[in-house]
Amino acid sequence: MSTRDFYTALNAQLAGLLSTERDWLANTANASALLFMELPDINWAGFYFLHDGELRLGPFQGKPACTRIPVGAGVCGTAVATGEAQLVEDVHQFPGHIACDAVSASEVVVPLYDGDRCLGVLDIDSPSLARFTREDLQGLQDFAEVLLQNSDLSGA
Which of 3, 36, 76, 103 lies at a 20 to 30 A Cα distance from 65? Predict the structure, then answer.
């Protein structure tokens, strides 16, 4: 199965999973579980939400994680500060990387927006270098869009 086909199927599965629920907590918990179950070669999948100028840990699957990340710090904080998704082949080469899990080697972070307002980020880590491709990034941005369209994340 091609990467594009994989994400088409994954995003359809997410849409079905969220079709009868709009609660942000339930939906982000299920979304992180779905990613952790379906994405190969990852060790963390979850969300951070923006509160009072910092990112705070939300639902996730994987090892315990950093609970607060300042905007502009690490890969997640950089995604919020720049408003751009981050695709990092080697997190150990990323300036200011925050090592919540020393095993993580690559990372992809997708900012979540409600109009012009950043709500937080979708964050996925892998123990393999260069695990994520541009196709993965696009598929995960589409995943985030399905989540945003089917959830009331403004209450997060």
Answer: 3
